[in-house]
Structure formats: C-alpha cells, structure tokens
Amino acid sequence: MGRLALVVFAMCFALGLASQAEAQAKARIEANSVREPNRILGAPIYSRAKVERYARSVGCTHYILKAIPIYYRLAPLRNIRPDVLVAQAVLETSRGHYGGDSRPWNMAGIKKGGAVRDRPKDFEVPQNAREGVRMHVNHMAAYTGKRAIGKPHDRYYEARAAQRRRGWWVRKVSQLGNRVWATDPEYGDKIRRILHAMAKR
C-alpha cells in the first residue's frame, strides 16, 4: 500500500509541475505580446475603444473613425493586428485628411496594378469604407503571405509576387520601409510612433 501511495504522489507531483510550467509559458506569451508592438500578426494590443480615443484626440476625420470598427472586424480574419493597420492608415491619409494624391476610401495609398507614378489616377479609389479597409487588409495580407478576403485588387498580386522574390514574409512593422511597402527608411518608425501614442490613450 505504501508503494502505491508513493506512485500516486509522484504522479500528482509531476502533473502539478507540468501544469505550473504550462501556466508560466502562457504568462510569458501574454507578456511578450504586450511588449511587442512591432509585430503585425496576431491579436491587437490596443482595444478598439483605445484606438478610437487616440483617433479623436489627434483630430482624425470621419474617414478614419468610420473605418476603425471595420478594421477590427476584417483584419482578425487574416490574423493581422487591426491596431497596426489603423496606425498605418492614420499615417498614410494624414489622419484622414488626404493631403496627397490618394483619395478616400484608399486607406493606405495603394496604387492600381501596374501604376508606377504618383498621379491621382494611379491610385485605387474604393467605393466605400468597407471596400477601402478590405483592400488595405488584403494588401497587408499580400506582404505577410496570407490569403485575400474576397477578390483582391490587382496590386495584391504584384505585392505578393515581390515579397516572394525577396524570399521572406513581413512580420514586423519595422520591415515595411526600405522599398518593401514604402521607400521611406523611416516608414516603420513613423507607424510605431503612432502605436506608441495609442498606448497612452
């Protein structure tokens, strides 16, 4: 009877250690996700409410405010962080004021297939907020090796092919500059600064 008790005790002890190790691993993963605002894939770090507070505080227009809930519905379908895409849209559209050649609802300055110049006619012009957000999610999906949602825009195929030629998929915001998504070497840092500002809301 004593040996049986020892075996049962040893089994319970081993199970307890395994359970504790699993809990510690889960806590490490959760802590890392909070400390890694640079990652593009996975769950959002900042809630929709926090992102909306940030957007209002910096004077974003209705183009951004209307798009935020759509980002939070569509981006997770491809395991892309919606808060990252909102930060990118804030940068690309000048907080929804569209000061450049791109027009609403183009949330990320996405050009038409084959376009190489920066004339207004070279940019996609989605018909509404949902189509603009879907196009943006799909464009990031092209860089991260994910499938498109619905029928993608022509530039999706070009971006995906270019990333295949590079031989790697984008995983970090810091990888988006230097002629990957944008030519600006500071592009990723600009998005990260917006994300950092979101954290304070």
Could you characterize what this model shows?
The chain is an all-alpha fold and 201 residues long. The protein contains 7 helices and no strands. Helix 3 (62-74) packs across helix 5. The protein is globular and about 85 Å long. The termini are far apart.
Structure class:
mainly alpha
Give the helix proportion (percent range): 40-55%
What is the gyration radius calculated from CA atoms?
21 Å
Q: Do you know the CATH architecture of the largest domain?
A: Orthogonal Bundle
User: Distance between the terminal alpha carbons, to the nearest Å?
Assistant: 62 Å
| Unreliable residue stretches | 25-34
Q: What oligomeric arrangement do these chains adopt?
A: single chain
How does the overall form come out from the CA principal axes?
globular
CATH topology of the largest domain: Lysozyme
Number of helices: 7
Largest sheet: none
Could you name the CATH class of the largest domain?
Mainly Alpha
Strand element count: 0
Overall domain count: 2
Taken as a percent bin, the fraction of beta residues is under 5%
Averaged pLDDT, please? 89
| Elements, N to C (H/E) | HHHHHHH
